[in-house]
Amino acid sequence: MSRERIVVAMSGGVDSSAAAAVLCEAGYDVVGVTLKLYNAAGTAASIGGRCCSPRDIEDARATAAQLGFPHYVLDEVEAFKASVIDDFVEEYRAGRTPNPCVKCNEKIKFGPLVAFANSIGASKLATGHYARLQDSPTGPQLLRAVDHDKDQSYFLFGVRNEVFKQVMFPLGDLRKEQTREYARRFGLTNCEKPDSQQLCFIPDGDHKTFVEERGGGRSGVVLGEDGQTLASHTGTHHFTIGQRKGLPGVDGKKRFVLRIDPNSGTVYTGPRDQLGRTEVRVENVRWLQDVPPQGAQAAVQIRHHSRPHPAHVQPVGPGLVNVRFNAPAEGVAPGQAAVFYQGDLVLGGGWISQSVGIPEARGVGSAGTQTAVSPA
User: Fold this and answer.
1) Are 242 and 134 in a shared domain?
2) Is residue 170 a part of any domain in this protein?
3) 335, 345, 351: which is closest to 286 by C-alpha?
4) Domain range for residue 51?
5) In the annotation, is 200 catalytic?
6) What's the whole-number mean pLDDT along residues 23-28?
C-alpha cells in the first residue's frame, strides 16, 4: 500500500525541519518545498543565515537530503514584493504600523504551497507554525498552540477555512524545547540554529532605513500634549503608536506617540494616561467561526506579543467590526492586526483602522523647546 504523501514547507529553520522529521518518523511520504520570497544574497543574512537567504535554502535542502526525501524551490519573489513589501512601505508612509507576516500568510504562502501539494498528489501541506487545527461539524477550527509563548495563530487568521482543510501543523502540541530536542535526536544539522528575530526582507532589522530608501514618510514636527512643538523629525515612518523610545523629554516627562498624521507629518505625543483606547474599528474582517449579529465577548489581541484584552466584538457591516474593550488598551495602532479569541479558539480577525478617543492637537505652537528627534 502506498504511503500518504505530505508536502512540508521548509524555511531552513529548526521548526520546519523538525516538522518534517516528525512526519518522516510517522511514516508519511514527505516532500519538501521552500518558497523563495526575497533575495538576500550579498547581505549579512546570506552569511549568518536568515529566512530567504541562500544559506536557508541550502539548510532546507540539506535537511531533506539527511532525512531522505526530495526538495523543491518555488520562486514567489515578484508576488511577495507586490503583495507584502510594497504594502509594508505604503502602510508606513500612510502613518500606519503594518504587519507583513500576516499579509504574507494571507496572500502569498499558503496558495502556492497548497497548489504545489495538489499538483504532486499530496493530501496535505504541513508547516512549522506553532498553532493547532481541530475538526468540527462546520469545518476546521484554528486554535492557539499548546506553547502559548510561541503561538503563531495570530498570524494565521487571514488564511481561508477551505485552505485549512488541506493543512496540518505537526508542532502545535509541542513546546519549543521539545522541538529542539526532537531535532537533536534526529541529528539535524540546523538543530541549534537560532530563531530569526527580524523580517525576512529586512534581515538587519532596520525597517526605518528600508522604508526611507523607498520614499519614506513625510517630515514634520513632534507635538506635546498642549500642542507645543517639541522637535522636528525626518519622517513619520520613524514612529508607531505607543512608542516611547527616541521621543524628546525636554521637561523630564515620559511621552508616548498617540497619533500620526501622515498628511502634515505631525506626530502627537502625550503622557501614558492618554494612551489607552476603549474602542476600535476593525476592517477587512475574516471570520473563521460564526459570530451572532449581536456580537460576542472575546479576548482581542492587538499585537503578536501583547496580552489579549477582554472586549465585546460587534459586527457593524460587511467586513467591519467595532471592538469595545472592557478596560482601556494601550498601543492600539492602525495597520496592526486585531485577532479575536474565545479561549484558544480563533474566531477571526481583521485590521485596525481607527480608534476612538484620540486626543486632538490644541494648536501647533512654538512655546516648547524645539530639538531634533533622533530616529528611534
Assistant:
1) no
2) yes
3) 351
4) 5-185
5) yes
6) 96
